[in-house]
Amino acid sequence: MKKIIAILFSVFIVSSSLFAIEKVEYIADSLIQKDGNYIKLLGGSSWELTSMSLSLVTDDVIIVFHQYVNKKGKQSILPIFYHDGEEIALRYISGSIQSEVGYITTIIEQLGKGAILRTDDGITLSIPQYDRYDTGWWLPPYKALITGNQMYLWNLKKGKKVWIDGIRR
After folding, report:
1. 11: part of which helix (H) or strand (E)?
2. What's the rounded Cα separation, in Å, for the pair 98 and 28?
3. 142 and 131 in contact (C-beta within 8 Å)?
4. 63, exposed or middle or buried, with CB in 10 Å at 0-12, 13-18, 19+?
5. What does R_g of the chain's alpha carbons equal in angstroms?
6. Where are the domains of the chain?
7. pTM above 0.70, yes or no
8. pLDDT for position 169
């Protein structure tokens, strides 16, 4: 009996950690200059993309700083550029960075024509009427970023931001 309880407890811990949201830092900004793989953001930072992007000047973009452990066991940060379904690694060149805290998750279910969104870790998001037009067309699953103040949800696949009315676990 003790073995069964121990096995169930370990399965519960493993399964709950598989669906944990990732706390990240990010920049939400607009492009003011683009030249090949070189981009400059309105906030003043400059970056080099590792591959070409279809983004245009004045487009809204998100850069998320993902943490990982490299081969030497050292904690490193990998910035990823998100724009209209593109995910491109990039390299910081210069300028000021004023990042914010957010949470990466995956939206797995949409109910009520976009009124309710569910994440893979069990969070339920309520979306106000005026943003349901967008969320009603977004087909799950897709990566999303919930801002640290829990006021906005960024669809990283579409590059659009909507208000959040409420969050429930």
Report:
1. helix 2-18
2. 10
3. no
4. buried
5. 18
6. 22-98, 102-168
7. yes
8. 83
